[in-house]
Amino acid sequence: MSITGSPSEDRAAVVSEKVAGEAEPADQKSAQQKPLGAGDAKTQQKKPDKGKARLLGVDVARSVAILGMFAAHVGPTEYDHPDSWAFLPFHGRAAVLFAVLAGISIAMMSGSTAPAVGKGWRKALVRIGSRALLMLALGVVMNLVFIVPVWIILTYYGGFFLLSLPFLRLRAGALAVLAGVAIIGMPLASWLVRSIYFPKSLMETPLNDLGAEQLNSWAGAGEFVTTLMLTGVFPAFIWIGYVFAGMALGRMDLTSEVVAKWLTIGGAALAVVAYGTSWLALNAWGGAERLYASLQPYADADGVPVDEFLHLSLFKVHGTPPTDTPAWLLLANAHTGTPFDGAGSVGLSLLIIGGSLMLQRVGTRVLKPLGAVGAISLTCYVGHLVMMQLLWGGEPNYTALNAFWFIVGSLLFAVVWQRWYGQGPLEKLVAKISSSATRAVR
Prior knowledge:
Low-confidence stretches: 1-54
Protein name: DUF418 domain-containing protein
Organism: Saccharopolyspora montiporae
Region (Disordered): 1-52
Shape: globular
Keywords: Membrane, Transmembrane, Transmembrane helix
Radius of gyration: 22 Å
Structural class: mainly alpha
Distance between the termini: 16 Å
Domain Heparan-alpha-glucosaminide N-acetyltransferase catalytic: 54-256
Mean pLDDT: 85
Number of domains: 1
Helix content: 55-70%
Number of strands: 0
């Protein structure tokens, strides 16, 4: 993102924007625009290559998020399915990776390693705010048009962007602290608020989503905002912590091999600590017994052991945990919206991003198909919903083979599209609209 706001820099930013409008780092653009002398030609040639390599690593990580969503949406994820072991790890965690990458894009649009100031900051506000509104609108329309059993993240994605606007001036350290506080604290605050105003047990858990029908009245609009921020599948008040984590990464020098290594090591350590502590809290410190006590009447009614009942019913904890006992906050299962779920999923996201940044140094040719999917990930995401609608309507066929063909088809499409057309069609549309909005900034 341009921090000076000149028209030429705006055009350069548009060319490199991804799903959320990720722009080239400022140091790379300045290197491209600075007149070259004979003595510094070699130095100047290295900077664009370095920047492109960094963007490839981010695009590869983004492709893992998108293809992971395909695996979760089309592959078998039922707990009792023989092939679910290969697909359940992507369930929920791919969406968290997508949110962390959204934070990286937001940081890059607002100055990259150095937060934008002055006119550059105002342009960043408009650019990111316009994308937020576009994502909100696109998500609402898709929920209205598509009849597929998929929780569409784009509406919530717009909410994440809106919540990030007051924090664009923060640097990496402050954003990292804010991310840690939000990942741990926001699920606790959400549970307290919901236990008072929106109490629910496991058997009363609604799978909320967002649609245009909620906007037909003031009461419906209030429900829309409540779902978006607090009670929905990807509640923004909880998920903003994942975005803050990504913004902190975007403020770092992701071209640094040292940073990539520490992200990989730190992410793995965070995931181990989060999932390990959750396991201890449940199995060694009495958390599971409290959950079993709250579920015993339902298990007795179904005639199954209470531990089996919990295992088979966890899919109902989608977005936020029940409020009938605080022991639900000890879970680390995907989509439960607990501190352990958030910390573990963010740890895995850091591991994937750091690993992608390290792999790009081994060989870019092998990674280019994945990078192509990441570069047009909004188009691929919407495209896979279109294909699900055309092939199956509201009754998809969840098989490993179908997931395989969705992934392979996306890779082939992305490579061919980038080869002949470059920027994805939806990416180009979003970039054009948001760039037009920023031109009005003075």
